[in-house]
Amino acid sequence: MPSLERMKNPEKLELCRKYFIIGCFALPFMWFINFVWFFKEGFMRPTYDEQKQIRKYLIWSLIGAILWTIVIITWVTIFQLKRVEWGQTGDRLSLVIPKGML
Amino acid sequence: MKLWSNLQMVISFKPAASVEVSGKGKRTYQMIYEEIAHLSPCIRRMNATHQIGCSSDFNGNTGVLHLIEEDADIDWLNVNGSYSPYIAFFSAAGCSTVVSNIEKLLATKKISGILVDHSNRTRNDIIDDESFRYSSDRSCPNDNFVTQDSLIIFSTYQKLTIYFKNRETSVAKEYMSLLRNQDGLVIFPTYQKFIFKIDSLSPFSLFNASFRSSILFFCRPLQWNRPRQLLVGHVEPHGTGSNFEVDFGVPVLALTSESEVEFIKECYYNHNHPDDTEAEYPLCAMELKDFMHGVKDTPTCMWRTQRTSNLEISSYCDPIGDKNVWGFAKNSDNSSSYKSVILAASPLDATSLFYGLFPRVGAESVVTSFVPLLAAAEAIGKISQKEKDTWEHDVMFALFNTESYDYSGSSRMVYDMMRGYFPTSKETIKKEEKEKKKRLPQMNVTDISYVLELRQLGLSNGTYYAHVDPISQADEGTKKKTDDLIKILQGVGPVEVNTVPADIPLPPASFQQFLKTGINIPGVVLTDHEREYNNRFYNSRYDFPYDLGVDKDNKTEVLYLAKKLNKVAETVAKTLVSLAGGDESSVKTDVTTVNDLLFCFLVNANCSLFRSLQQKADVHISPIAIDLYPGVWQSDTQGSILTTRLLAYFLGEKTAMNETDKDDCSKPDDSEVYTYHYAIGPEMNPDKGICIKSTVHITAAVSPAFIDDEHTKPDWASTKYSTWTQSQWSRHPSASEYF
């Protein structure tokens, strides 16, 4: 990971944009990292030209990451609670079936 | 898994002294735990709807040892026991055979495991008590079967339950209107289920013929595996069904070494025994490991087993099954010979609640059934080929395997016959069409002219009983032929054969499966009991030779039982020859053979008869009785392998052959009619070996519910055929004691 301090502002914007776009391919953790990494650049530093756009990418990254987290947590909860009840469907959705239990 | 299980046997039968205690000092584990070497686990089995049997947690179950010597000890545990969980140790075997005691114990919720004392002394005490009966099979063995698609009949203790799969069918409607008016009937409308007490109605007058037949099939109105009168003091000591209906939920292990039992008892009395108050720490505790992979039911675990995942290969359970062994007396490759055969049958397998148990079980349940059959095969095998060629019928000897598990073996043979797969599958025939290979002709159920089945013959007082199927007797022709068969049985001697009253149904037998096709076959099931079983321990852990008087190592002496069974065998052999159209007067069975067979199967398989059938003189055979549990389908058991060789030896054509030429003793490329076995021969001399050429073959004794081929897909939830599977396990079951 290159150090942000040594980068020029347009380069930072480009990098932030790339992270956002990569995150769009079902990679919420990318968005989360994007948000944490550029947080200082986007919200703490004095204003510069590209900051507005960086902020936009960061906010959308955060929203995306949160939505993803909610979806994943909901699914995991449902799956854990209902897997046994679903019977064969539940087994089909499992990668590893535990031995000696349902 | 079988390999593993065999390994387990080897380990657990090592003498206790050789448990790894090296001179260099013990491992920490060994200083804390005292391993119990001689044990036999209750394992988990599954059927279409339930899991049955036992399993521990993944890491084993631990608990404080509590000795149960009388019923009051269970109550003490329930009221006073505060060191929960406990491992209950039944040292008085009578106590552990009562299902209500086990239920009471499990209901305390303070139990994490059960040990059962099955050592010599306790065992013999219990068997000496002649009023004691116990069976882990059901009171109506092999009973939960379906006759018609629309209804399932289930019977348990004094209750008959009828389920309707679809209550909209006309059959269902008709029965329901009949059943509604019955006394003692409980109706569960939502479950489409009827339950009524057997004693409260006489089913015969009520229903039409087909319904009556379904009731008669299900050993109504007689429960075979149950004494007529309940004995005082024994609440339910018979036909408990514990091997087929109970899911214990905790590990249950049987201990077979007297010294280990004493060792555990001593620990209990020194540390745990409550005098006035409960004992204090340190307490004697046990850890039981018996973790099973399969769970819930056969559809679940079979589906999981066949599922392929690229991450890991896991299997959870396997169908229970082995091989049916069968062969023909005429030894002919003339196909017309197979169009009218007499089927001489008996079961070949036994079971008990515990796996790989010592002593071996099945003595009266099956060994006394198939030994006379084998002896009769020997007598018939001695008749000259020329004479046999003049017979009108051929005799087919069939030993059905896995019969304890809802007739797996016989139902498979019948199923294959009905779909044209017996003895060769359609795929094989198609594949070999071009090669013009000669094979045994395909057989159908209609090719069977008569059935003579032997079931439990060891406990007779000199009289034997010829059971017939009352339903097919309604057909004139069948009745006449059955009567002829009985007349021959009664006439040829030397034993006395009685008929049974017409209202007694056909006892549980492989013959049932042939009749279930709806084809009327005249036939007889020959037994030593008229009504309920004489066998006090049918398919249970006490069914070893003790009761039959075979617990001797002295094999030079001819046993009383051998003399008795030899007479039955002679009657059977003569009947078969006479029925086939031959001259029975000179047919003679050999009492030495019967004696040898009993000794080899029940006492020591490393006997001269079995050794003479091996390929080499120095083959290792464990010097113990043969385990007749059918095991899982992938592997053939020692029992079925040896029986195949025996039957081939008795029925086949024997030619002298040097050991060096034994490669010549093999099938020609263009014929599958005969099988060839090379054996070292009775003289155990490599120069005097024999090549046995016979029509003895083996076919799968696996329930039709598991068939998976071009035309048939498996039906793991089948209500028509046996669905029993056995769970797998990866570590051999163990028990250890610690503080």
From TrEMBL, chain A:
Pfam families: PEN-2. It is a multi-pass membrane protein. Its main location: membrane. One of its GO terms (biological process) is Notch signaling pathway. Keywords: Membrane, Notch signaling pathway, Transmembrane, Transmembrane helix. The keyword Transmembrane helix applies. GO terms for cellular component: gamma-secretase complex. The chain crosses the membrane at residues 20-39, 59-79. InterPro entries: Gamma_Secretase_Asp_P_PEN2. It comes from the Eukaryota. It is found in: Membrane. The keyword Transmembrane applies. Belongs to the PEN-2 family. This is Gamma-secretase subunit PEN-2.
Automatic annotation (TrEMBL), chain B:
One of its GO terms (biological process) is protein processing. The keyword Transmembrane helix applies. Gene3D superfamilies: Zn peptidases. It is found in: Membrane. Pfam families: Ncstrn_small, Nicastrin. Belongs to the nicastrin family. PANTHER family: NICASTRIN (PTHR21092:SF0). This is Nicastrin.
